[in-house]
Specification:
single chain; about 140 residues; alpha+beta; four-stranded antiparallel β-sheet; 4 helices
């Protein structure tokens, strides 16, 4: 049964309160990766699955909206996903040991470079398995 919206009028106040909100989004990617434990010991991971959680701090605008989720998705799809999804990370990321810790920091920095000036990263979690992951936040990354 379709609901009747014909009585709904433009609100008198678009913004309930001024302030900030945290946008939460998640992404999955699969990649290949060689992780080094020292100069001679390494492990090759093939078709390794990761789950990424991203929190972006955004002001609430005059219409009661934070940054559009589609804008965050566009940054991920244009600048991050092509370097991660179905890639050998050792070839596509900066010359570093491609551990979850380093991958997470690279993702953080990449988002920060492309977010609008009034928004910023707030928190990021990167899980290598359902139970194992790393977390970054503004306090850690601003040190």
């Amino acid at each position: 049964m379709a609901r009747d919206f014909s009585h709904v009028e433009v609100p008198k106040h678009f913004q309930y309160k001024s302030g900030h909100t945290i946008l939460k989004q998640s992404y999955d990617f699969i990649c290949d990766n060689r992780i080094y434990f020292n100069e001679t010991v390494y492990r090759d991971l093939t078709q390794h699955s990761y789950r990424l959680y991203v929190d972006v701090l955004s002001p609430i605008g005059q219409y009661g909206l934070g940054l559009d989720f589609n804008d965050v998705d566009a940054i991920y799809k244009q600048h991050i996903e092509p370097k991660l999804h179905h890639q050998l990370l050792n070839d596509t990321l900066p010359n570093m040991n491609t551990t979850a810790e380093n991958i997470a920091m690279w993702i953080w920095d990449t988002f920060e470079q492309h977010l609008p000036k009034d928004t910023s990263m707030y928190n990021l979690e990167l899980f290598e398995t359902e139970r194992h992951g790393v977390s970054l936040n503004r306090t850690l990354m601003n040190k």
